[in-house]
Design goal:
Elements: H1 13-23, E1 31-32, E2 46-47, E3 53-56, H2 66-81, E4 85-90, H3 100-112, E5 118-119, E6 122-123, E7 125-127, H4 132-144, E8 148-151, H5 155-160, H6 179-191, E9 200-203, E10 218-222, E11 236-238, H7 240-250, E12 255-259, H8 266-278, E13 288-292, E14 295-297, H9 304-312, H10 327-333, H11 337-347, E15 354-356, H12 358-369, E16 375-376, E17 378-379, E18 382-387, E19 396-401, E20 411-416, E21 419-423, E22 443-446, E23 451-459, E24 465-472, E25 491-492, E26 495-496, E27 501-508, E28 533-540, E29 551-553, E30 557-561, E31 572-578, H13 583-589
Parallel strand pairs: 3-4, 4-7, 12-13, 14-15, 16-29, 18-24, 22-25, 27-31
Antiparallel strand pairs: 1-2, 5-6, 8-9, 9-10, 10-11, 17-28, 18-21, 19-20, 21-26, 22-23, 23-24, 27-28, 29-30, 30-31
Helix pairs in contact: 2-11, 7-8, 11-12
The protein binds adenosine-5'-triphosphate (ATP) and magnesium ion.
Length: 600
């Protein structure tokens, strides 16, 4: 992939850290062998050609969302920029919630975003579960050296005795038991002799530490659960906070980048690595943990657990519902990988938590697609326009550029005929001031065709307009000499009714009515927008290539073909976003969310 706006090119504090490390040669002598490392001695390993190693470590317990896209962009982007390698590592230490289907979806999402864990013939795809045996050995070594013990307090007692932020914890009565007793118990735990929660392996650090995470954190717990990869081979599983530094070290990670919630865990991360290195189980230089602010976006939820609830309870149609901020959903909606990378770059990497407005994502799509998306005409809310001075059989071929700034893309051609579809709101019987489109007596240009004079309309018994009438001015055809002699203030898009292609067009709105649906006291489901999708029977310009990734429908916005056709077999088209950010304006006028359709 070329370095456009694709990698972490903006200046940020992580780059500064990496550049400082590179300059100081901190990782210059590191050696590397593909994991899973079974031997502690990396002496025989090759010098590592990668300047840095980063990793993206998802837990396979759901589909990835826009926040993960940010993390992918940071980790893969940084590695790419500094001549390094990024590992895709599944942190599968929580057997109950993990599934192979999620593993597959995550791999797909990373690749679709434009990244690859393959590097010079080496596949850097790893699973924490591949290290269970090594982790177990390391845990035993900690016990033997007096750095860990099996605690047989009940989970409640463990919690109570941990103390609070203002008071120190209390040592467990099991804390000073002999190492060989702990070791025997730990072996029994592994052998399945004890039920869940009966005991746990804890690091022996300091029950009075001001950092709660250092008050003898649990590093192994009993879980009689089936694991999606290791099956029933294990009934004890390492805790994430201990597993993670071990995984990083075994993979030769140099920069372990995570979100700010883990800042308080960093002392334990470092304790784990240094203790294991001091015991001769890990080689130095050790990985370093660096935190950045997670991405929060308004009008969505970015938590796999909450997304799962939306999916499971049927509030949306699956993980790839185009309203979801999942990578699969955004992809299906029509967001491009390059637009998402541009969004990541624009939102930056910082230490300060903030909420990014949803409109930043939409603007990234516009800026990504405006220079490339082919133009086309669609009519979403059609009403017929009859050109009364054109014969029923007459056809005038009209031309339009596929892209206004890319003549090399050529032209599209379509028929101008007596009956056309126009947007219903392009006509008003009794218009307000400054309405420049069709009303009786007014002249407008039918885009790429003729100037027409509106002569009136036909209404049904309810007063609804069923037909608009107009006469065209034959000398005003676009692109012919003198076409501009008649000056008009409005331009209207149209499609020949005899040639238009029917389509189901899905117009999306925010999934939630509140910018921060999961903040405050109320439940996020209470803020679901009941009108987050509307499907309309629209018309498309004839001859559209339905394999086009994204179109700009003139005057309407950016649209993409949905990978799944509509129920009645018609093409399904998703609106990705409108042409301009009309949403903020609508919101300030009324508190209820509304559905902006057009910008002119
Ligand atoms: P979730 O709560 O949605 O399950 P998670 O952090 O538990 O999120 P993981 O699968 O553990 O999900 O995340 C993999 C990586 O993605 C982690 O390094 C995590 O820090 C990062 N990540 C997750 N959410 C965000 C976010 N909103 N912004 C930036 N990075 C994120
Ligand atoms: Mg997690």
């Amino acid at each position: 992939m070329t370095e456009q706006h694709n990698e972490a090119s903006t200046s940020n504090f992580l780059r500064h850290i990496i550049e400082t490390d590179l300059k100081a040669g901190r990782f210059a002598n590191k050696r590397w062998a593909p994991p899973p490392a079974t031997a502690v001695d990396l002496g025989g390993a090759e010098p590592d050609a990668a300047q840095i190693r980063t990793r993206f470590p998802p837990e396979p317990n759901g589909f990835l969302h826009i926040g993960h896209a940010k993390s992918i962009w940071v980790n893969f982007g940084m590695a790419q920029h500094y001549g390094g390698v990024c590992h895709l590592r599944f942190d599968d230490t929580n057997p109950e919630k993990e599934e192979q289907a999620y593993v597959d979806a995550i791999k797909d999402a990373v690749q679709w975003l434009g990244y690859d864990w393959q590097h010079q013939g080496q596949s850097n795809l790893y699973f924490a579960s591949d290290y269970f045996e090594v982790m177990y050995r390391f845990a035993c070594a900690l016990i033997k050296a007096g750095f860990a013990y099996v605690d047989e307090q009940s989970p409640e007692d463990m919690r109570t005795n941990r103390g609070t932020l203002t008071s120190p914890g209390t040592n467990s009565i099991w804390r000073d038991r002999p190492a060989n007793e702990s070791l025997a118990r730990f072996e029994e735990m592994r052998a399945g002799h004890h039920p869940d929660g009966a005991m746990a392996l804890r690091a022996r650090i300091d029950m009075a530490s001001p950092n709660m995470n250092l008050r003898d954190p649990v590093i192994y717990r009993i879980r009689h659960a089936h694991h999606h990869r290791t099956g029933n081979a294990w009934c004890i599983y390492p805790m994430y906070s201990w597993a993670h530094p071990v995984e990083d070290a075994l993979e030769g990670i140099t920069h372990s980048i995570c979100t700010l919630e883990f800042e308080d865990q960093r002392p334990f991360y470092e304790w784990s690595l240094n203790t294991l290195a001091d015991l001769g189980l890990l080689n130095r230089p050790l990985p370093g943990q660096h935190e950045f602010a997670r991405l929060n976006m308004s009008y969505v939820v970015t938590s796999k657990r909450k997304l799962l609830q939306l999916v499971q309870d049927g509030h949306v149609n699956g993980w790839d519902d185009p309203r979801l901020p999942t990578i699969a959903g955004m992809r299906r909606r029509g967001y491009t990988a390059s637009a998402i990378r541009l969004f990541c770059e624009r939102t930056g990497v910082s230490k300060a938590n903030s909420h990014i407005d949803y409109s930043v994502l939409e603007q990234a799509l516009r800026d990504d697609q405006d220079p490339q998306a082919p133009r086309a005409v669609a009519i979403l809310d059609p009403v017929k326009l009859v050109i009364t001075n054109l014969g029923a059989e007459e056809v005038v071929m009209c031309h339009a550029p596929r892209h206004p700034h890319q003549p090399e893309l050529g032209e599209r051609e379509f028929a101008f005929t007596r009956e056309l579809w126009i947007e219903r709101d392009d006509f008003m019987q009794d218009p307000p001031k400054k309405y420049f489109r069709l009303f009786p007596g007014n002249q407008v240009r039918l885009k790429y065709a003729f100037v027409v004079t509106c002569t009136g309309c036909v209404t049904d018994e309810t007063g609804k307009v069923t037909e608009v009438h107009a006469d065209y001015l034959p000398d005003t055809r676009s692109g012919t000499p003198g076409a501009d002699a008649v000056k008009v203030k409005g331009t209207v898009t149209w499609i020949s009714a005899a040639h238009a292609v029917p389509a189901k067009i899905r117009l999306y709105d925010r999934l939630f009515t509140e910018p921060y649906p999961d903040a405050g006291q109320s439940h996020f489901l209470d803020h679901l927008n009941p009108d987050s999708v509307e499907t309309v029977d629209g018309w498309l310009e004839p001859g559209l290539d339905l394999a086009t990734p994204v179109w700009q429908f003139e005057r309407l916005g950016y649209f993409a073909p949905d990978a799944k056709a509509s129920e009645d077999g018609l093409p399904a088209i998703n609106r990705i976003t409108t042409l301009k950010d009309t949403w903020a304006a609508h919101q300030s006028k009324s508190s209820a969310p509304s559905k902006p359709n057009r910008t002119t």
